Structures are given as C-alpha cells and as structure tokens.
Amino acid sequence: MTKHTLIALMEDRPGVLNRVASLFRRRKFNIESLTVGHSETPGISRMTIVVDADHAGIEQVEKQLYKLVNVTKVSDVSHEPTVIRELALIKVRATGPTRAEIMQLVDIFRAKVVDVAAESLTIEITGPEDKVDSLVQLLRPFGIKEMVRTGRVAMVRGSNGRMTESASRRVASR
Fold first, then answer.
1. Phi/psi at 88 (nearest 5 deg)?
2. How far from chain centre, in Å, is Cα 172?
3. What's the mean pLDDT when you consider all of the chain?
4. How many CB atoms neighbour CB 93 within 10 A?
5. Pair (87, 35) in one structural domain
6. Which of 38, 45, 73, 139 has the fewest C-beta atoms under 10 angstroms from its C-beta?
C-alpha cells in the first residue's frame, strides 16, 4: 500500500463532507489527512484526501466518489507533478535559557513565531510534511504543550493553476 493524494471538487452543501468520509469508512480505508476549503469557483469546495491504499482500491474509491451527487471532479494526483504543503502551529515551552535556542531553530526552518507568552512560544511552519516533522522532532525535547496540523494540501503544477484533464476523469453519465 502507498499514500495516495486525491483532490475532489464538490458543491459547497451541508452533508457532503460526511458522505465522503462515510464512503472511505465503508471501504475500510483510514484517511490519513483530509482538508477542505473554498476553491476559486464560488459554490465549489476543494477537498484534499490522503489515504493509504493500493491502486485498485483507489480506482474504486474514485468511482464511488463520482457517484456522490455533489462531487463534480476527482483526481488522483499522487503521480502528477504537484506542490504539496502543510501548516502547523506548535506551542512549545520556552523559558529564558531555552528561548534563544528555539528562536534559532525557528530561523533555520524559516518558520515564524506568531505568539509570545512568559512560558511559551507559538510557532507557525509551512512546508512539506517532512520539514514540519523535522521541526516537531527538534522541538519535542523543549516540551510541546499543544500542536495542530492542517494535513496535506496539494495543487497540480502548471501554468493554468487548475487541475488538468489528464489528472482527472469526468463521468459522462451524469
């Protein structure tokens, strides 16, 4: 099994996210990450789903996604040239002696300090998952008090900025 990144475009309606998640649950696929937000088209949301599955399983899921009334386009971009990013906010214990060392790590990773408190720093990092993972591992010894990660967001590379037809399949019988 390998990680697959699916991008689905769907009508922005109540219950669509639940139906998509239920489809994966019924197929016994564990969703590793799922991000959803507005797209460039009003009324259309964009969902990025990361799941561990074999090729046959992913093809089946794609077909099932298209059967959902509100889904308009599905792409498995796992083998396409893509830009993939993740955002994390990490609140780390930072006392006087450790604050400078943490700030050096923040600079090395081109992250940002977005909140400063007497006993902690909140750090924002954006980048590939392995970059985020590396910073998290280096911050653990200081004491991570709280952390949130967005999960993967992905976009196919190219000049037009939209998912290409080669990266997606349309269902003719709609």
1. -135, 145
2. 29
3. 88
4. 16
5. no
6. 38
Residue 3 in contact with residue 77, Cβ under 8 Å?
no
Per-residue model confidence as pLDDT tens digits over 67-102: 887 899 999 999 899 999 999 999 999 998 899 999
Question: 159 pLDDT band (50/70/90 cuts)?
Answer: low
CATH label of the domain that carries residue 119: 3.30.70.1150
Do 72 and 141 lie in one domain? The reply is no
* Rounded Cα–Cα distance for residues 27 and 6 (Å): 15
The answer to whether residues 90 and 22 belong to one domain is no
The Cα–Cα gap between 133 and 118 comes to 26
Q: What is the mean pLDDT of residues 9-30?
A: 89
> Beta-carbon neighbour count of residue 80 at 10 Å?
19
Q: Which residues have C-beta within 8 Å of that of residue 50, sequence separation ≥ 6?
A: 3, 4, 5, 6, 31, 32, 33, 34, 151, 152
What's the structural domain count of the chain? Answer: 2
* Containing structural domain, residue 106: 83-153
Of 33, 57, 80, the one marking the end of a domain is 80
